[in-house]
């Protein structure tokens, strides 16, 4: 069985928790795009793991893979492995694999990212971790790959070939070009390459071989649908394709092998950084949702903008991903609200539309058209079954399911594993 899991909104929907929850059913868990600009938090008992590159499936003994469509900062990968080792979780090359074709984020990528963002008159809200510039080099065929990093001579030759152009690019943006050939940084990367040499693998081969043998594979995306570099709210998007179809291309698996596509959907909506968010709340309710939901980024610590559930955006996400089922997260955060609103359409220039406009500037002008549902006062964090939810909370879930036209299979009412149940 081959399952793809993606976020249906702007990221931060709770993918890490759901992957952790269901990964016990999968032999392989594969990250297929993005870099350490994404983050997910997994809570097991009293232990909290904040991860940026390693898929969370390792907690239930799956083999986890980082696919060729990702961009990898080897220093961050080393830090995550060391952090987990300190907690008693030792992940060697039998537990983790990184594709030889995965692009490496170099120090000059991070430098270029920060310089470029600082010069923009209209900020994108980049995390300044070099992700975009690593992807630029992948497309331009100027990348350093994991396979290069693992071979000292190949790595040094590749860096020598690229140095002049990278130094010129940094100088043009007003930065210090000496970072490109800084010997201390080069030595660090050579050491990291040696450490990860045994982790290098062919992810496409591993995944296809596993499927041939009847094993189960879970492909995990980063960020969310509306941050997709093609289909998202340009230019306020990430640098990779976040939708389900890109899992096939970024891993190297034919689309006929896909069995399930699972959406992770928050019971409201959030966004980090710049870009349109039609249902954004600027009042006390927005602040309450932010505080109760702990809406602060795993990667950056930035506060997330919060809004009511946006059905037009979900309709587009369903078309873009072809979801077969939905996991609804953070339902508990909406407790203690008299009224829960759902955006069912937009008003744009005097017309009512039920699907997001293509142009980002038009989406920014959209005014939400709401339907009101009755709220609930009960604390949901101890609920174990759907039928034990307050009736109005059940009604909210059923309402969303009917409107989306895709079944909600999983409901989460808190960060812990035991706070999740099947509908």
UniProtKB/TrEMBL annotation:
<dbReference type="InterPro" id="IPR042109">
    <property type="entry name" value="Adenylosuccinate_synth_dom1"/>
</dbReference>
<feature type="binding site" description="in other chain">
    <location>
        <position position="223"/>
    </location>
    <ligand>
        <name>IMP</name>
    </ligand>
</feature>
<feature type="binding site">
    <location>
        <begin position="412"/>
        <end position="414"/>
    </location>
    <ligand>
        <name>GTP</name>
    </ligand>
</feature>
<feature type="binding site" description="in other chain">
    <location>
        <position position="127"/>
    </location>
    <ligand>
        <name>IMP</name>
    </ligand>
</feature>
<comment type="similarity">
    <text>Belongs to the adenylosuccinate synthetase family.</text>
</comment>
<dbReference type="InterPro" id="IPR042111">
    <property type="entry name" value="Adenylosuccinate_synth_dom3"/>
</dbReference>
<keyword id="KW-0436">Ligase</keyword>
<dbReference type="GO" id="GO:0005737">
    <property type="term" value="C:cytoplasm"/>
</dbReference>
<feature type="binding site">
    <location>
        <begin position="298"/>
        <end position="304"/>
    </location>
    <ligand>
        <name>substrate</name>
    </ligand>
</feature>
<comment type="subunit">
    <text>Homodimer.</text>
</comment>
<feature type="binding site">
    <location>
        <position position="304"/>
    </location>
    <ligand>
        <name>GTP</name>
    </ligand>
</feature>
<dbReference type="GO" id="GO:0000287">
    <property type="term" value="F:magnesium ion binding"/>
</dbReference>
<feature type="binding site">
    <location>
        <position position="12"/>
    </location>
    <ligand>
        <name>Mg(2+)</name>
    </ligand>
</feature>
<feature type="binding site">
    <location>
        <position position="141"/>
    </location>
    <ligand>
        <name>IMP</name>
    </ligand>
</feature>
<keyword id="KW-0342">GTP-binding</keyword>
<feature type="binding site" description="in other chain">
    <location>
        <position position="238"/>
    </location>
    <ligand>
        <name>IMP</name>
    </ligand>
</feature>
<feature type="binding site" description="in other chain">
    <location>
        <begin position="37"/>
        <end position="40"/>
    </location>
    <ligand>
        <name>IMP</name>
    </ligand>
</feature>
<keyword id="KW-0658">Purine biosynthesis</keyword>
<keyword id="KW-0460">Magnesium</keyword>
<dbReference type="GO" id="GO:0005525">
    <property type="term" value="F:GTP binding"/>
</dbReference>
<dbReference type="InterPro" id="IPR018220">
    <property type="entry name" value="Adenylosuccin_syn_GTP-bd"/>
</dbReference>
<dbReference type="GO" id="GO:0046040">
    <property type="term" value="P:IMP metabolic process"/>
</dbReference>
<dbReference type="GO" id="GO:0044208">
    <property type="term" value="P:'de novo' AMP biosynthetic process"/>
</dbReference>
<dbReference type="InterPro" id="IPR042110">
    <property type="entry name" value="Adenylosuccinate_synth_dom2"/>
</dbReference>
<dbReference type="Pfam" id="PF00709">
    <property type="entry name" value="Adenylsucc_synt"/>
</dbReference>
<feature type="active site" description="Proton acceptor">
    <location>
        <position position="12"/>
    </location>
</feature>
<feature type="binding site" description="in other chain">
    <location>
        <begin position="12"/>
        <end position="15"/>
    </location>
    <ligand>
        <name>IMP</name>
    </ligand>
</feature>
<dbReference type="GO" id="GO:0004019">
    <property type="term" value="F:adenylosuccinate synthase activity"/>
</dbReference>
<protein>
    <recommendedName>
        <fullName>Adenylosuccinate synthetase</fullName>
        <ecNumber>6.3.4.4</ecNumber>
    </recommendedName>
</protein>
<dbReference type="InterPro" id="IPR001114">
    <property type="entry name" value="Adenylosuccinate_synthetase"/>
</dbReference>
<keyword id="KW-0963">Cytoplasm</keyword>
<feature type="binding site" description="in other chain">
    <location>
        <position position="302"/>
    </location>
    <ligand>
        <name>IMP</name>
    </ligand>
</feature>
<feature type="binding site">
    <location>
        <begin position="330"/>
        <end position="332"/>
    </location>
    <ligand>
        <name>GTP</name>
    </ligand>
</feature>
<keyword id="KW-0547">Nucleotide-binding</keyword>
<keyword id="KW-0479">Metal-binding</keyword>
<feature type="binding site">
    <location>
        <begin position="11"/>
        <end position="17"/>
    </location>
    <ligand>
        <name>GTP</name>
    </ligand>
</feature>
<feature type="binding site">
    <location>
        <position position="39"/>
    </location>
    <ligand>
        <name>Mg(2+)</name>
    </ligand>
</feature>
<comment type="pathway">
    <text>Purine metabolism; AMP biosynthesis via de novo pathway; AMP from IMP: step 1/2.</text>
</comment>
<dbReference type="InterPro" id="IPR027417">
    <property type="entry name" value="P-loop_NTPase"/>
</dbReference>
<feature type="active site" description="Proton donor">
    <location>
        <position position="40"/>
    </location>
</feature>
<comment type="function">
    <text>Plays an important role in the de novo pathway of purine nucleotide biosynthesis. Catalyzes the first committed step in the biosynthesis of AMP from IMP.</text>
</comment>
<feature type="binding site">
    <location>
        <begin position="39"/>
        <end position="41"/>
    </location>
    <ligand>
        <name>GTP</name>
    </ligand>
</feature>
């Amino acid at each position: 069985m081959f399952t793809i899991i993606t976020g249906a909104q702007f990221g931060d929907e709770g993918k890490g928790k759901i992957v952790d929850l269901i990964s016990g059913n999968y032999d392989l868990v594969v990250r297929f795009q993005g870099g350490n600009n994404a983050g997910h938090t997994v809570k097991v008992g009293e232990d909290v793991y904040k991860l940026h590159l390693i898929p969370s499936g390792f907690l239930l003994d799956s083999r986890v893979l980082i696919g060729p469509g990702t961009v990898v900062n080897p220093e961050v990968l080393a830090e995550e492995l060391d952090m987990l080792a300190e907690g008693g979780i030792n992940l060697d090359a039998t537990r983790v694999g990184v594709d030889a074709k995965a692009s490496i984020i170099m120090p000059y990528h991070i430098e270029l990212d920060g310089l470029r963002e600082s010069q923009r008159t209209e900020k994108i809200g980049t995390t300044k971790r070099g992700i975009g510039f690593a992807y630029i080099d992948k497309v331009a065929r100027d990348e350093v790959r994991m396979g290069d990093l693992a071979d000292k001579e190949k790595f040094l030759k590749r860096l020598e070939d690229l140095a002049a152009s990278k130094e010129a690019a940094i100088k043009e943006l007003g930065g210090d070009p000496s970072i490109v050939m800084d010997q201390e940084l080069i030595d660090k990367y050579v050491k990291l390459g040696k450490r990860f040499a045994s982790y290098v693998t062919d992810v496409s081969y591993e995944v296809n071989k596993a499927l041939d043998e009847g094993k189960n594979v879970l492909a995990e995306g980063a960020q969310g649908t509306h941050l997709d570099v093609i289909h998202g709210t340009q230019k306020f998007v990430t640098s990779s394709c976040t939708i389900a179809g890109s899992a096939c291309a970024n891993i190297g698996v034919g689309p006929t092998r896909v069995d399930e596509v699972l959406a992770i959907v928050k019971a409201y909506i959030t966004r980090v950084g710049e870009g349109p968010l039609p249902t954004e709340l600027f009042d006390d309710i927005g602040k309450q949702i932010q505080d109760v939901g702990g809406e602060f980024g795993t990667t950056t610590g930035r506060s997330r903008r919060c809004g009511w559930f946006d059905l037009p955006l979900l309709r587009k996400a369903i078309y873009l991903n072809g979801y077969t089922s939905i996991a609804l997260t953070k339902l508990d955060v909406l407790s203690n609200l008299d009224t829960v609103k759902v955006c069912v359409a937009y008003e744009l220039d005097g017309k009512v539309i039920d699907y997001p406009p293509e142009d980002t500037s038009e989406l920014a002008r959209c005014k939400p058209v709401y339907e009101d549902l009755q709220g609930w006062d009960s604390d949901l964090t101890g609920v174990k079954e759907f039928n034990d939810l307050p009736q109005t909370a059940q009604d909210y879930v059923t309402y969303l399911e009917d409107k989306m036209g895709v079944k909600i299979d999983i409901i989460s009412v808190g960060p812990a594993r035991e706070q999740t149940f099947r509908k």
